[in-house]
């Protein structure tokens, strides 16, 4: 059996550009959620005026400056922002892994699987408006390539000359997890030895926020206190906070990684996928059926529920979603005979600090889960001030402060509109 390990990590998040900026800030309980007022009057007219924004600034300070990553003006014109974030995260992950191949065989054995939930909202909007006003001649020849979701993967392949699989997934908020899971399968089945895998999103656009607000998904009560708006598992949680960024990991076949003496962060042990087959946006009402995706991931990993040390929950800070996931995790992890006490189950939702990165969320959260194992640290759930006891929230949710604890096995969940669920199981490499 071909085992898959993680050898490189890269991220662009509201907490900073680069893992070396994002992770320490997460552990110091910093928030990347800000007011959207500075973005203009269209934003200020919306019911939800907060977002997880990638900070502007220089690379060395953990800020985003496009031309430090997408060097030529021509490239910047060809790449929408989500693709630029994906490119930056891929570059960081590849350098972190020490894998920037140039030999023909290595290039053919390396692929990319990088998706996005929505792609470039901005381009659709601007071009629609321009077309309506000015007609055909107002449509840029770069419109279609900037729009297409798989072009983030395409640009990464082109920049590095990678000739293996060139793939992208788009399954709403499950995109990032599906990209990583599918990429691992491609390695298992021998389609590639190394995969650059993850998700990217940049849809901090007034129309996107309007759409999610109309779907009644967003937090609207915290416009004057942005850093408190995303509060998974808290009694006062009232919707998610939209966020942007990208997360990418280098997945590598174990023998390949060993042969080149690569550092191994963790092993990707299991991947599970399932569907609710129930409703466009709401979780199943019965909710108490254990999550099929988590069960499948553990089955694939040959790991028992009792061995799971940490769950990075999807929990987006919505009333129904957090409660349904909590029930499912408890059902699964408490064990058939209640062998475990709920307070010994460790769950956190890092969305408290960065908001919901939609198509990038699963990838960024997979990175946090891998780091939890690598550094034996549970990242905190920000803004968890009042536990909702009535809803059965009696696990350890790592409220507000990180905890040091040995983590050998971590699960991370992602659920998306359309009822699509996935779970990834990582373990310490032995
Ligand atoms: C999918 O996730 C939702 C949200 O937590 C959960 O209610 C549902 O049971 C899950 N479904 C499956 C099939 O795993
Ligand atoms: C888990 O999935 C991998 C493919 O990624 C496969 O090679 C392996 O046999 C599966 N293991 C089990 C126990 O299902
Ligand atoms: C959860 O974390 C606490 C403290 O960090 C620890 O004592 C406990 O054993 C952990 N539970 C599991 C199942 O690992």
Automatic annotation (TrEMBL):
<dbReference type="InterPro" id="IPR014030">
    <property type="entry name" value="Ketoacyl_synth_N"/>
</dbReference>
<dbReference type="Pfam" id="PF02801">
    <property type="entry name" value="Ketoacyl-synt_C"/>
</dbReference>
<dbReference type="InterPro" id="IPR014031">
    <property type="entry name" value="Ketoacyl_synth_C"/>
</dbReference>
<keyword id="KW-0276">Fatty acid metabolism</keyword>
<dbReference type="InterPro" id="IPR016039">
    <property type="entry name" value="Thiolase-like"/>
</dbReference>
<keyword id="KW-0012">Acyltransferase</keyword>
<keyword id="KW-0444">Lipid biosynthesis</keyword>
<feature type="domain" description="Ketosynthase family 3 (KS3)">
    <location>
        <begin position="1"/>
        <end position="428"/>
    </location>
</feature>
<keyword id="KW-0275">Fatty acid biosynthesis</keyword>
<dbReference type="Pfam" id="PF00109">
    <property type="entry name" value="ketoacyl-synt"/>
</dbReference>
<dbReference type="InterPro" id="IPR000794">
    <property type="entry name" value="Beta-ketoacyl_synthase"/>
</dbReference>
<comment type="similarity">
    <text>Belongs to the thiolase-like superfamily. Beta-ketoacyl-ACP synthases family.</text>
</comment>
<dbReference type="InterPro" id="IPR018201">
    <property type="entry name" value="Ketoacyl_synth_AS"/>
</dbReference>
<dbReference type="InterPro" id="IPR017568">
    <property type="entry name" value="3-oxoacyl-ACP_synth-2"/>
</dbReference>
<dbReference type="GO" id="GO:0004315">
    <property type="term" value="F:3-oxoacyl-[acyl-carrier-protein] synthase activity"/>
</dbReference>
<dbReference type="GO" id="GO:0006633">
    <property type="term" value="P:fatty acid biosynthetic process"/>
</dbReference>
<feature type="active site" description="For beta-ketoacyl synthase activity">
    <location>
        <position position="173"/>
    </location>
</feature>
<dbReference type="GO" id="GO:0005739">
    <property type="term" value="C:mitochondrion"/>
</dbReference>
<dbReference type="InterPro" id="IPR020841">
    <property type="entry name" value="PKS_Beta-ketoAc_synthase_dom"/>
</dbReference>
<comment type="pathway">
    <text>Lipid metabolism; fatty acid biosynthesis.</text>
</comment>
<protein>
    <recommendedName>
        <fullName>3-oxoacyl-[acyl-carrier-protein] synthase</fullName>
    </recommendedName>
</protein>
<keyword id="KW-0808">Transferase</keyword>
<keyword id="KW-0443">Lipid metabolism</keyword>
